[in-house]
Amino acid sequence: MPVKRLTGSRIREKRLDQGLRQAAVAEAVGISPSYLNLIEHNRRRIGGKLLTDLARVLGVDPTMLTDGADSDLLDQMRSAAAAMGGEAEIARTEEFAARYPGWSALVVAQARRIAALDEHILALTDRIAHDPQLANSLHEVISAVTSIRSSASILVTQEQLDADWQRRFHQNIHKDSLRLADSSEALIAYLEVPDTTVEVAQSPFEQLENALALRDYFLAPLEQESADTAALAQELGLSGPAAQLFEAYAAQYQQDAALLPMQSFSEACRATDYDPSQLARQFNADFPTVLRRLSSLPTGEGHPRMGLATCDVSGALTFLKPVPGFTYSRTNGACPLWPIFSALSRPTQPIRAEVSLPDASQTRFLCYAMAMPVGAHQFDVAPVLQSTMLVVADPAEGAGLAIPVGGSCRICPRSDCTSRREPAIIGVSAASGL
């Protein structure tokens, strides 16, 4: 059901939650109870002053009655249903989120935790299967047990053994038992879970992105070439593989900052209306560098928020700076119609395209993308490509048609998509406005 059709339902839910009678609310806004009844059953359109008056009486912001649930929340709820494979009423996702935003957020948070725990279990399983220290410990235990069993079986089965041989076998059993005790203790200590709260595991990419999000993806120290990246990584709480990823990210950031200094680049962005092609010509910089630099503009200085995504030639996401509404599924596979993927088939060709999501408000984004080879060129070796895409939210209406994109196929309601890889778990009826 489209968002506007749900406005009346939201009004009714807010009224009932507060225990207000329909007649009292109608009288407060100057309409008849019968007319309010038609509104609450979505049989009359509502807007302007009447909507404002109703919001005032109900004590809520008017946008809570008209906009419904955030599109990103809806996508995450549908993704949660897709991941669990249950019998959730997907067609009523928006209604549920609008009526119970707190519970909806809880469902999404639990789905994220389940996904993180599943990933943690996979990592532990892989560790058990391939960890050399664990394999050596188990080998020590099995070896000691086998040796004790062999010596004991000889003592049991051989009826006549002289005292010297018996003493030797007893010494062997004693030594092997000590070795078994030591190796068992080492194995238990290795496997023992510390008596502390275990944090949910995150991939190194997610750790890096979460740390950058806390700084709004703008790192002032990296604007200088002399920045201590190791100290900054420690300040951000990054270690291990995440710190190594940050070192590569910081090196790229500093290289971009040296080529496009923030002060002059910021002024040029405002003068060119943030046009990447003009900025690339003005600073004699390649397109992906300009896209990365645009995404790092500090929003606190009045610059618009822009998202950024990079992927390798397999389509695997290697970096993500999100913006509201722009979702990219790591687990279920992203929609192949996003410009970041089409750029891989046209290396070094800049792409500018508008896209629209299959939500009720047909959310649009303006995307700039380009795929470029990375690393040194070599004979008889295929180039390593990396695709970069800048995502601008709420663009001005363009002249061309927007590309219809989605999230993952499992939660995309577009029934006529020729790029679909698998059936959707939601029907056409769940596609608001489609």
Task: Please characterize this protein's 3D structure.
With about 425 residues, the protein is α+β, with helices and mostly antiparallel strands. About 50% of the residues lie in helices and about 10% in strands. The chain has helices at about 5-15, 20-30, 35-40, 50-60, 60-65, 70-85, 95-100, 100-130, 130-155, 165-190, 205-215, 230-235, 240-260, 260-270, 275-285, 285-295, 340; strands at about 305-310, 315-320, 350-355, 365-375, 385-395, 405. A six-stranded mixed sheet has the order 2-1-5-4-3-6. A hairpin with a 7-residue loop joins strand 3 and strand 4 (about 365-375). It is extended and about 110 Å long. The protein starts with 6 loop residues before the first helix and ends in a 30-residue tail after the last strand. One of its GO terms (cellular component) is cytosol.
Strand order of the largest sheet: 2-1-5-4-3-6
- Quaternary status of these chains? single chain
Structural class: alpha+beta
Q: What is the 3D form? A: extended
GO molecular function: DNA binding; DNA-binding transcription factor activity
Protein name: HTH cro/C1-type domain-containing protein
Organism: Yoonia maritima
Keywords: DNA-binding, Transcription, Transcription regulation
Quick structural gist:
With 434 residues, the chain is of the alpha+beta class.
What are the key terms here?
434 residues, alpha+beta, 434 Repressor (Amino-terminal Domain), six-stranded mixed β-sheet, 17 helices, 6 strands, extended, disordered C terminus
